[in-house]
Amino acid sequence: MSSQERSAPRRRNPRGQGQVLKAQLVDAAAKLLSTLDQPETLTLRQVAREVGVAPASIYSHFPDLSALIQHVLRLRYEELARLMDQAAQSAPDPLVDLVARCAAYVRWGVGQPGHYRTLFGGRMPDDLVPGSAHGAGAELLEAVVTSLAAAAEGERKQPSAEQQWQAGLMLWTALHGLVSLYNDHGNIPWPPLDDLIADLLSLHTARPADEIAALLPQCGDAPGLAPDSI
Amino acid sequence: MSSQERSAPRRRNPRGQGQVLKAQLVDAAAKLLSTLDQPETLTLRQVAREVGVAPASIYSHFPDLSALIQHVLRLRYEELARLMDQAAQSAPDPLVDLVARCAAYVRWGVGQPGHYRTLFGGRMPDDLVPGSAHGAGAELLEAVVTSLAAAAEGERKQPSAEQQWQAGLMLWTALHGLVSLYNDHGNIPWPPLDDLIADLLSLHTARPADEIAALLPQCGDAPGLAPDSI
DNA sequence: TGACATAACCAACAGTTGTTCAGTTAGAGG
DNA sequence: CCTCTAACTGAACAACTGTTGGTTATGTCA
């Protein structure tokens, strides 16, 4: 079924509008990356088939397949970062900020398993992952670290910078492990996701779980993709 | 360099010893799986080249490539399970049992990044991962759950079965996230692994970190692979 | 020594992939 | 109308994949 030939031979774009094919290619690649079980088996010809275009036409817009994939990944990465910032921007205090940020992370990852796996699940060829040069999601990690540190302000014992770093790191690993396993092993009986998020943050902030749960934004709050963008 | 032709045409095995090639194939596949960045790109011909044998010769020992990979994964999985059991078998109390078990898990995963990613990275086709049918490491998970529950015995509040399950699940996700990110993002400044393990278990058992750290078995304790098995 | 089953090979198949390059089409500007 | 060029195509390339059928070498046993 995936090898179906295109029925409509796809009208060529008008003169100045060569960019619309580029956008279509990006969308198709994103869709395929989110669909495929193994992201790195994405194929140039799959993208071409999806759009209904000759494989060679891609080379007018991207130097090669790596560039196309890298472009898609950069977009997804920026989308996640933007979502997390948006979720936290109106937080009245650091704890709410932290909760909103982490909830956005987990929900994005669970909502887009293919994209999450592509970005954070294992190593893509080094030059493909955006931010890999500066640490593969370093901005996200640092945001979590500072947010957690701010939320832990006012504890009776001031942690050192190393302790703050380690605490943030462990929070991120916990979030990542939750998303990864939740996505990849749907057959084991998972509790409701919000319970897990609340429990996880409760552990890492030393606050009671119900206090965290009360701070969790509603599911509909997170601004997602525009439905027509894919 | 990986495409080097074999120089010695490989002496054929004597009469009853057809099984030694099978073992060599398994070893070669294991080595390649642990080496490759993307496990699912393992190729029948790569294995054949590694051993120095014609691609067709593999079909005398395995019905197809999937069977070979599945066999290797099953061996690795059983190895991990055995290591965890061995590590915990002489534990005087449940907390030591839990610590030893988790430490063995993390150390095995960190010591064998390729194998860990292959087993738990969630990118292999479903039928390849052993235990996927009954929950992808369900035995390991259940061992952790019961171990954690036993270690939490004597707390002032007895948790329900659901709470025990959720707590074990979260511990496993944390362990998995730690191993995954530690393996895949070596460029970010990680604290010593034992500190992370102790801190993680401290969080999940509500015990002070130094108490946990004192229970951590020495690194040399874990019986690893025989050096010549690969 | 001869027969025979085992162990492994050789060559080929049909399919896939990324990439290149010489073309073709079509629409906008003169 | 003509021309030019952006937009795209078709065909081919070399390399790679899993898999197969037929073939050869080799050790063992009678």
Automatic annotation (TrEMBL), chains A, B:
GO molecular function: DNA-binding transcription factor activity; transcription cis-regulatory region binding
Keywords noted in UniProt: DNA-binding, Transcription, Transcription regulation
Source organism per UniProt: Streptomyces sparsogenes DSM 40356
Record flagged with keyword Transcription: yes
Pfam family for this entry, one: TetR_C_33
High-level lineage: Bacteria, Bacillati, Actinomycetota, Actinomycetes, Kitasatosporales
InterPro entries noted in UniProt: Homeodomain-like_sf (IPR009057), HTH-type_TetR-like_transc_reg (IPR050109), HTH_TetR (IPR001647), MT1864/Rv1816-like_C (IPR025996), Tet_transcr_reg_TetR-rel_C_sf (IPR036271)
Superkingdom assignment: Bacteria
Protein name: Transcriptional regulator
SUPFAM superfamilies reported for this sequence: Homeodomain-like, Tetracyclin repressor-like, C-terminal domain
